[in-house]
Write a structure and sequence with these properties.
- The protein is an all-alpha fold.
- The chain has one domain: Orthogonal Bundle (Non-ribosomal Peptide Synthetase Peptidyl Carrier Protein, Chain A).
- Helix 1 packs across helix 2 and helix 1 crosses helix 3.
- The longest helix has 17 residues.
- It is globular and about 40 Å long.
């Protein structure tokens, strides 16, 4: 499990615990909606938290949000975007812009939690 998988798993587990959902071991093939029961509001919150952690929003750059079905798809979106940004830093959206979007999303959702990925 790489840092992208670990971060996505942690955010999903945290939200499941917060919502008092059953928190079995997650795997990459678990479907976010059908298997884990996340709503579109949950997904918006998850994406805001991950954007804050990683400093990027893959869904505004290179990945269609509609292509995300599983835990593995979600981690893969961040992996793909961040690895592409590392190869071509000219395309990188400034971190402050990404953090501002994440903060605005959290404020709209009433979530002030900040988590950092190491």
């Amino acid at each position: 499990m790489d840092k992208y998988d670990a971060a996505v798993h942690q955010v999903l587990r945290d939200l499941m615990e917060e919502e008092k959902s059953e928190t079995n071991e997650l795997n990459k093939d678990d479907r976010l909606v059908e298997d884990l029961g996340f709503s579109s509001l949950n997904m918006a919150r998850i994406i805001a938290i991950l954007e804050d952690q990683f400093g990027t929003d893959p869904f505004s750059k290179s990945v269609a949000i509609t292509s995300i079905r599983t835990v593995g798809d979600l981690a893969g979106a961040y992996r793909q975007t961040l690895e592409a940004e590392a190869r071509d830093p000219v395309r990188v959206t400034p971190l402050t812009q990404s953090q501002q979007r994440a903060a605005a999303r959290r404020a709209a959702l009433g979530d002030s939690t900040r988590r950092d990925v190491g």
